[in-house]
Amino acid sequence: MIALAHCFEPAQSVCVAVESHDLADLARICEPEVNLCLVHRHPESELQSFVTELLRSPQEIEMSTVIRFEHFDFSALLQDVKDLPGHGVWWRDVARLTCAFCDLFETERAGLRLRTLDHPMCPRFHVDYVPCRLVCTYGGIGTQWLPDDSVDRTKLGPGAKGLPDEASGLILDEFAIRTMPAYGVGLMKGEKWEGNEGHGAVHRSPKLSPSAPRRLLLTLDAL
């Protein structure tokens, strides 16, 4: 467990991303020069089967709530599809990620959102005005992000003057656009991380495809 006060340290002038296969490395988000941690995962087949069947169904999911980890019943999530094989494996995975998130920031409270998406929710590259956000795409195409040295931050938001990302000059290297893998866990510093103003991780929702037309997105916010 890492003391919260040790996490919120000023960012460096150039921020870096850390990639790993170990959830414990999410703690590196507390390093001043790191503004994104990405943990690649190889989920068990039962979890993948549950998500596949869920995304094939017409079930629409949109929930947002503030939870207290010690008192929240994760088994109650997605009760409408609780009979699908693998539901228990899935909610235990959500609980595991939430536990890791809350332990990292020494808090019982987190903002939890779950939603199925068949279109880009935030199609423009942007930064989040939160201290820190965890994202995990269950199935489908994951969140896209740009390394710090491949983005012109003056073109974010109004600086784009209404032009799309690919025409505004925001993307300095189109080949640098990265996509988080399905089931990968991304932890991103936002603009409200103390000392990180102007250095929030730059990301956007992906364009979906005929072969992957839907995604189930989990986000956790530090409150």
Overall CATH class: Mainly Beta
- Secondary structure: helix percent: 10-25%
Cα distance spanning the termini: 17 Å
Helix/strand order, N-terminal first: HEEHEHEEEHEEEE
Structural class: alpha+beta
* Largest sheet strand order: 1-2-8-5-10-4-3
Number of domains: 1
What is the CA-atom radius of gyration, in angstroms?
17 Å
The largest sheet is:
7 strands, mixed
Q: How many distinct beta strands? A: 10
Just name the CATH architecture: Sandwich
**Hey, roughly how much beta strand do the residues contain?**
15-25%
Mean pLDDT comes to 92
Q: How many alpha or pi helices?
A: 4
The poorly predicted ranges are 1-6
**What is the CATH T-level topology?**
Jelly Rolls
Q: Which geometry do the CA atoms define?
A: globular
Write up this protein:
The chain is α+β, with helices and mostly antiparallel strands and 223 residues long. It has a single domain, classed as Jelly Rolls (Sandwich), CATH 2.60.120. The chain is built from four helices and ten strands. It is globular and about 50 Å long.
